[in-house]
What does this fold into?
Amino acid sequence: MSSENVILSCGCRAQSINGNGEPSCPVHSTIPGGVHPIPPPDLEGRMARCDCGKMAKSSLDLAFFQFRGVGSREGDETCKNCRYYKVAHRPEVTNKNNSVCLNFEPIISFELDKYYCGCYGWD
It folds into this structure.
């Protein structure tokens, strides 16, 4: 199976093939439960930003594209109050970190998706 234009449950476009021949994400492959293909999101009207600030229309053709809209893992797992991930709101973590709020509320959707424009090189 090809990884081309396959979006995964982590929000990323598949960048590789795992040992079973399935589309994979080398960045998020260790997420509990793993990552799996999902139906492509509606990218109409969405924009993506590289870490350097360059913007582009959201597209599965962008390098290292990550969808962060409604229904995305990023939107569902990031707190709108403190911006920490949901896992950081567990009592054993909040007891050690004053920056995490005590009331996790998902951000639902980020305004922008992410991608890499090549600004730092490709090697």
User: Anything to note?
Assistant: The radius of gyration is 16 Å. The mean pLDDT is 90. The longest helix spans residues 73-77.
